[in-house]
Amino acid sequence: MTGASLDAQRAEIEAEVLAAVTTMLGEVIGEGYVAGMRITMDSSFNQELEIESIELVLLAERIRDRYGDRVDFVGFLANRTIDDLIELSVGDLVRFIVDCSARAAPVASVPGQRADSAASGAGSAANGADPAAAGGDGEGDRRG
Question: What is the domain-level CATH number for residue 70?
Answer without folding.
Answer: 1.10.1200
